[in-house]
Amino acid sequence: MGDTPNTDEQRLAEFSNKLDSFKPEGFDEEKFAAFKEAVIGFHNDEVKGLKINTAKMKEEKDILSNKLNTLQTTFTENESKMKTLEQQLADNQPEELKKAFENSRKEIEERYTKSLSELNKQISEKDERIKVLESGVLERDVLAEFNKAAADKQWLGGGREMAQAFITGKHGENFRRLKMPDGSETLVNNESLDMRQALNKFLDTEVGKNLLKSGLSGGGADGSTSTSGTGKKLTRAEYDALSPTEQMNFSIEGGEII
Q1: pLDDT tens-digit series, residues 70-102
Q2: How many structural domains does the chain have?
């Protein structure tokens, strides 16, 4: 399986090393250190905020679920009492008491139905919010794993983005977290492949090979074809608006993102 970092410390160390790799040669050390500290601080605040919001949403959902259980228990108890009273009324037949009983029962049922509907709506909203927050964390981790797996490849223009869309999905939805026997987590797709395995499998296909410089024939030592540089040019926004298939065709035909 893969080597997905399973602690915040490991993720932070990798992020810090990644920033170091971006340092221009000869750049002032103190200025770069200040820049790095600011970026890491922003990154930590963003991750911390996601975790706090997710935990808060789950806690609020639990409170609502407890209220719902209490409401259901109370209604069940009242229903039992109502049946007992109903039987007593049936035995004695006092019309005025029977009418008052029916009105009371109707009022209780209406209050219960309204409260139940409101609680279920609030719980559903919390579930949706939790789902959004958790998917944001998953998307970030999936992208980080893809970037690591793809770092040593020589991509054609747009090839990296096309491969990512096919392998991870637009928002990382093709991968899920898998709990390992030692308690750690790794990311796997629906074939139980980790990111590096999934990428290598894709690059073994004809489509995948054509996204790498070494995957094309002719045109010199770098493996580029005679169509390189002669295809269409699209902005990043225009490229992102294409479907995965259109992105693939754009890349294969020598398209360039400007």
Answers
A1: 777 877 777 777 777 667 666 665 676 667 777
A2: 2
Together in a domain, 45 and 85: yes
Cα torsion angle, 249, 187, 143, 52, sign: positive
Q: Is the pLDDT of residue 4 over 60?
A: no
Which stretch of DSSP H or E encloses residue 174? Answer: none
Rounded CA-CA distance 56/45 in Å is 16
- Residue 257: beta bridge partners? 234
Q: What does each C-alpha distance from 142 to 67, 120, 171, 225 come to in angstroms? A: 36, 32, 9, 32
Q: Which two tokens stand for residue 186?
A: 């790794």
Q: For the packed helices 95-150 and 159-168, what is the interaxial angle rounded to 10 degrees?
A: 140
For residues 33 and 141, membership in a common domain is answered with yes
One domain, residues 14 and 127: yes
Structure token pair of residue 58: 């789950």
Q: How far apart are CA 115 and CA 110, in angstroms?
A: 9
State whether 123 and 166 are in the same domain: no
Place of tokens 């050390």: 29
Say how far apart CA 11 and CA 24 lie, in whole Å. 23
Residues 10 and 18 sit within 8 Å (Cβ to Cβ): no
**Looking at the structure, do residues 91 and 212 belong to the same domain, yes or no?**
no
Mean pLDDT of the chain: 74
pLDDT of 126-155, one tens digit each?
666 666 556 678 888 888 899 999 998 989
Calculate the CA 61 to chain-centre distance.
19
